[in-house]
Amino acid sequence: MSKITAFGTYTPEIIIDNNYFEKIIDTSDDWIVSRTGIKTRRFSKEEEFASDMSVKAVKNLQENSGVTISDVDFIIVCTTSPDHPMPNVASRVQCRLGIQNAGCNDVYAACAGFIYGLHLAHGLVTAGINKKVLVIGAEALSKFTDFEDRNSCILFGDAAGAVLVEPSEEEHFIAFNSGTYGDFGHDLYLSFKKDNINGLEIIPNGKIIQNGKSVFKWAVSNIPIKIKELVQKAGLTLDDIDYIIPHSANLRIVEAIAKNLDYPVEKIPESITEFGNTSSASIPLAIAKSQRNGGVKSGDTILMVGFGGGLTFAGVIVKWSL
Ligand SMILES: CC(C)(COP(=O)(O)OP(=O)(O)OC[C@H]1O[C@@H](n2cnc3c(N)ncnc32)[C@H](O)[C@@H]1OP(=O)(O)O)[C@@H](O)C(=O)NCCC(=O)NCCS
Asked: Is the CB of 177 under 6 A from ligand 1?
């Protein structure tokens, strides 16, 4: 059995408002707010990468909990915007934090990454393979954004969130689900070399490219169903869930999920308005923001669901204890 025993986040200092984009592309603050809900996002400095933000999120986790991390024995970094493909970001974090004897692995599951990381950490701990697992969602998306593409560049932000998963006498991970719709692979991608997915032509320019309409439609039609399936799998009803925390991809997606489930939108914490779409960091940021505003608290049953490039999704229901 396992639980989350510590939690921290990091957001870079540079705040980018929507006026920034009015100067570089044909757009407006009104359009961005009405279509996405985003008012500001943060960009990392030129020399600040996913590993740097990971380290800062873990330092915040330590400040929040006073926990020792020198004996962490596995590090999972969930990212779609690594410093480089090799070595992985987790290895950089191990080195920078001076952690000895830790296995290190990156999870590449785009905006579902953080939840896949939780699945893996729970599995490693409950199988008795590891005792102290750091799961970090860290994104330097601004370094992979095409600032000439007005359909996508307005969406993304940089940030990191981290949790520690440890053995527990009581199970705090209640239910899991995941799945992938690989036939939508070409609708959201970041390619350096290969110029096709499923035989369909793509642009291998090292930038995030998406068919926003298709991803939007897929998310609003599938994610509510997956949430219902997960709640059912746990033997619960939506009334038993104190907060649903979906990936903050777009405020309209969050609102559509609430409407479809007939679930109060006030009980769906989001990070999109202040921080933009931060991919695998968006769920930790939403929890931290909710906690600051007197929302998520110890003892709450929360359902988290990530979704994105793949197209893939992963959900988990957790008894939050922080
Ligand atoms: C990208 C997204 C915000 C676009 O919103 P939308 O309401 O679907 O907008 P559309 O794509 O229908 O575009 C509507 C019009 O606005 C225009 N437009 C697109 N981006 C614009 C921008 N930044 N500013 C002004 N106009 C813009 C389009 O060109 C289009 O014009 P047209 O009708 O003349 O062709 C939305 O589709 C989205 O958020 N999708 C999901 C993306 C996502 O979550 N990605 C990550 C997954 S985890």
From this structure: no
Which residue in 111, 122, 130, 186 is the catalytic one?
111
Count of domains in the chain? Answer: 2
Please give the C-alpha separations between residue 96 and each of 51, 55, 75, 106, 135, in angstroms, as whole numbers: 9, 7, 12, 16, 16
The residue to mutate among 23, 31, 35, having the most atoms of ligand 1 within 8 angstroms of its beta carbon, is 35
Quick check: is 153 catalytic? no
Neighbours of 277 (CB within 10 A): 26
Residue 111 among the catalytic residues: yes
Could you tell me how far CA 13 lies from the centroid of its own chain?
19
213 Cα–ligand 1 center, Å: 7
Q: What is residue 181's predicted lDDT score, i.e. its pLDDT? A: 98
Please, which pLDDT band fits residue 223 given cuts at 50, 70 and 90?
very high
Residues 162 and 14 in one domain: yes
Are 8 and 141 contained in the same domain?
A: yes
Same domain, 247 and 136: no
SS3 content of the chain, % helix, strand, coil (to 5): 40, 25, 35
Structural domain harbouring 291: 173-319
> Given pLDDT bands bounded at 50, 70 and 90, which one contains residue 279?
very high
Q: Is 247 among the catalytic positions?
A: yes
Is 228 buried (19+), middle (13-18) or exposed (0-12) by CB count in 10 A? middle
- Which atom in ligand 1 lies closest to the alpha carbon of residue 279? 48
